Amino acid sequence: MENRPEDFPGMPGPTNTAAAREAVSMPAILLMVTGALGLVGALIGLVSSGMGGGDIPPELFEANPQMEQFRPWLERSRSFGAFGNVITLALSGVTFFGGLKMKNLENFGLAMAASIIAILPCFGPCCCIGIPVGIWSLVVINKPEVKSAFR
Questions:
Q1: Burial (0-12, 13-18, 19+ Cβ within 10 Å), 65
Q2: d(C-alpha 144, C-alpha 151), whole Å
Q3: Which domain, by its residues, includes 134?
Q4: CB 3.0–4.6 Å: which of 66, 110, 111, 146 could bond 20 by disulfide?
Q5: Helices and strands (H and E) in the chain: how many
Q6: Within a domain: residue 2?
Q7: Is there a domain that residue 64 lies in?
Q8: Domain count, the chain
């Protein structure tokens, strides 16, 4: 007597890798685009802050003496801009690399992490694109037939 997958309802059947690869193709490409846009934006932000972009103009305090009380906060927020760009650079890299792994049906955990990072509105790369792409990616990679195709 031969055992067939349909005889075991709780067990996954044979994996159709071609269908899974086709299902993840577009969301994976869009995850890579989202990550690439985040990388470019973070690099531009780092270069800009390194060249003095975002400096607080002295005229602001000369024209408005009451603004002097906000100087420490403004200076701290400016330094956070560079730190935020470094964080965004790292998260965008993870998003891009996770999309690449997702496209090749490798490393399910990294594909999951990239999808979740894309959804983050504050530190996720390019949130206008990232939120719908991240949700779409999560839905696709959590389908049983796609999840079982990951190596």
A1: exposed
A2: 14
A3: 17-147
A4: 146
A5: 6, 0
A6: no
A7: yes
A8: 1
Burial class of residue 104, CB neighbours in 10 A (0-12, 13-18, 19+): middle
Distance, in Å, from the CA atom of 98 to the CA atom of 147, rounded to the nearest integer, reads 15
Characterise 23 by phi-psi region: left (phi > 0), alpha (psi -120 to 50), beta (else).
alpha
- Residue 7 inside a domain? The answer is no
Q: Could you identify the residue written with the tokens 């906000």?
A: 70
Q: What is the pLDDT along the chain (151 residues), one digit of tens a residue?
A: 454 444 445 445 456 889 999 999 999 999 999 999 989 888 888 887 776 655 666 676 677 777 777 767 666 666 667 788 889 899 999 999 999 999 999 999 999 999 999 998 876 666 788 899 999 999 999 999 999 999 8
Q: Return d(Cα 114, Cα 98) in angstroms, integer.
A: 5
Cα–Cα distance measured from residue 119 to residue 112, given in angstroms and rounded to the nearest whole number: 11
Nearest to 134 by CA among 45, 31, 65: 31
Query: CA 1: distance to chain centroid?
Result: 49
Domain-embedded: residue 60:
yes
* Amino acid at the residue 120: L
